[in-house]
Amino acid sequence: MGYYLSKKKVRGRIYWYAQRNVWTPKGSRVAEQIYLGSADMILKAMKGGGTVSLKTYRFGRIAAILSAAEDLGLRCIVERTIDKRKGYGFEELMLLVPTGKFEHRTSKLDIVDWYSRSYLVHYFDLPNKISEETIYRMMDKTDYKVQEKIGEELAKRLTGFGISPSIIVVDTTNFATNIEHGEEIPQKGHSKEGKNEQNLIGFALAITPQNIPFIWNTYEGCKNDAKIFPDTVNAIVERLKKLRIKTEDIVLVFDRGNNSKKNVDLATIKMHVIGGLKRSQAKNLYDIPVIDMEFLYETSKENKIFGYKTRGMFFGREFTCVVTYNEASMLRQSREFEKQKRRIVEKLTGIDKSLERKGRGRKLSVTGALRKANDSIHKNFRSLVKMWVSAGKFYWKWNDEKEESIKKTFGKQVLFTDLHDWSAKETAITYNRKSLIESDFKMMRNSLVFSIPPMNHRKDGRIRSHVFLCLLGIFLYRYALWKTRHLGITEDKFLDALDEIQVSLMSDGKARRAHWVVNQMDATQASIFTALNMERFLPKDR
Q1: Mean pLDDT of residues grouped by 10 in the chain (542 residues)?
Q2: Distances in Å between the alpha carbon of 448 and those of 64, 105, 445?
Q3: What pLDDT is recorded for position 542?
Q4: pTM, two decimal places
């Protein structure tokens, strides 16, 4: 899109901008906004006098990352961690990737191109033009030991600001890659995106109650959740010890995919736990009717949560159990179930018709039909369909009794904890912090924000470094959000406000000097600008 004139009315005065928009997944967004001034200023400029805007830059997202990095002392941490002989401006190169990704850039080449045209070229002490290879050299030098040290030092800084990990939420995921022939990390496995034909990289993350990354690990894509859980727990314990935080005061929250007696024993020896139980592990508790539950709390989306507290024997010991019910989740799961049921019935009906088809061409065999039917049904639904071959014919039947049993679990969760004195409400709210870490995983999959995919690196070292740089961006972003929490604005409004904070390089026609000005801001933008002390990142006038 080309430029057009846009006006803003501030305290009764009209100010003019040259504005250009771009299309994004959320609709039209401002890509560039050049401050022109008032009508009088524009008229003076046309007559050869007054102040003229040389160029306008997006500033908000860049300054937010720089602000967090400055507060957390990232520059000093990197200088202590990296041998200075390894590269000039190393900490700035390290910030370049997460900052570029926050500005909607994906590939390293795209980030290099963006840097030469961004505001950072005026602030960083780097050449105006850098190469993709420069970034790769930085990544190679940011090895696993360097990443661990930086993560540990950042965690120390967080505790200094009062961000204490009294509750730690841990979860795992994996990401599909474009890597065909890698080293040890890219492996085939069960893709959580349904992309089993691609090589995967596994990823474990632990966060603080403020949703700031505390521990992360990149591992082989073939490993399942339960197998990687002990390594994650041990890493958490080791970091807590280095921070001089008593592990017995920590509550570890984890998903049901990590359940095993060995894993639960390991976690409860080190910390308190809150976990979830699978349907097969607590069938009698999932059968508890909603009418027997009491109201616990209401979510931010006005969903009412009900619960029932009891005790039970699991993993060889007694735990307090809380059964929760969320009607919104029940309705969502019901819709998804009916959608999957229709798809399965259509598939099986189609196979029936293909067996009955008459005419020329190779027909589907009965055993082939059975194999095709089995492959077309997700493993979670196979218990709902009985299929068999008899007298040379293929038969199938839907299990209505099993369906009713499954529907009784919709909207329900069964939690277990060794915190026997905690109320059902407190246990449920703490466990549901898992939604925070799920939002981080969603952010890592988003092609516009701190995305890990697409992954094309072949070597394990670069894969780990790439993931680390993405996590560093999330770390700094979450800290910036935490610092502006007192403003009471949502995350979406925070991001929208950052997009609107811009600066312009202005030229004074008479003095022939260039100076920087901050474009007109509304109240929200100004509050964020002040809270993050963004003014410190404006260079001195030329």
Answers
A1: 69 69 67 66 58 76 96 91 65 91 84 91 86 91 92 94 92 91 92 87 94 94 92 95 93 94 95 94 91 92 92 96 95 94 87 68 71 80 85 83 91 97 96 90 78 86 94 95 95 93 78 76 94 90 49
A2: 17, 7, 9
A3: 45
A4: 0.83
> Both tokens of residue 246?
């008593």
SS3 of residue 226 by DSSP: helix
Contact 252/271 with Cβ under 8 angstroms?
A: yes
Residue with tokens 């859980």: 229
Which residue reads 């995983």 in tokens?
A: 441
Instruction: Measure the CA dihedral 234/238/244/249, to 10°.
Output: 0
Structure tokens at 150: 């930086």
What pLDDT, on a 0 to 100 scale, did the predictor assign at position 9? 65
Torsion of CA 318, 233, 207, 327, to 10 degrees: -30
CB 124 within 8 A of CB 89: yes
Please enumerate in sequence order all residues whose Cβ is within 8 A of that of 56, keeping only pairs 6 or more positions apart, or say none.
Answer: 32, 33, 34, 35, 502, 503, 504, 505, 519
Q: Which pair of structure tokens corresponds to residue 196?
A: 């089993």
Instruction: Tell me how far apart the alpha carbons of residues 74 and 71 are, in angstroms, rounded to a whole number.
Output: 8
Residue among 313, 287, 283 at smallest CA distance from 416? 313
Cα separation values, 278 from 372, 413, 500, Å: 29, 9, 46
Q: Which residue has the tokens 């007192």?
A: 486
Hey, which residues does 387 pair with through a beta bridge? 396
Query: How many whole angstroms separate alpha carbon 159 and alpha carbon 240?
Result: 11
308 three-state secondary structure = strand
331 in Cβ contact with 368 (< 8 Å): no
User: Of 301, 324, 281, whose CA–CA distance to 423 is shortest?
Assistant: 324
Q: How far apart are CA 79 and CA 153, in angstroms?
A: 12
For residue 502, give Cα distances in angstroms to 142, 150, 538: 32, 31, 11
φ/ψ of residue 275, rounded to 5:
-135, 180
Whether 177 contacts 452, CB under 8 Å: no
> 305 phi and psi, to 5 degrees?
-110, 125
Report H helices in 103-208.
108-117, 120-123, 132-141, 144-160
Q: Which residue has the tokens 């910030």?
A: 95
445-480 burial, b at 16+ Cβ within 10 Å, e below that, comes to beeebbbbbebebeebbbbbbbbbbbbbbbbbbbbb
Contact residues for 465 (Cβ-Cβ < 8 A; gap 6+): 139, 140, 142, 143, 147
Cβ proximity of 381 and 407 under 8 Å: no
The residues facing 413 across adjacent strands are 324
DSSP 8-state code for residue 176? E
CA distances from 434 to 270, 452, 495 (A): 20, 20, 22
Partners of 10 in the beta sheet?
13
Closest to 313 measured CA to CA, from 322, 321, 302? 321
CA–CA separation, 173 vs 202, rounded Å?
Answer: 6
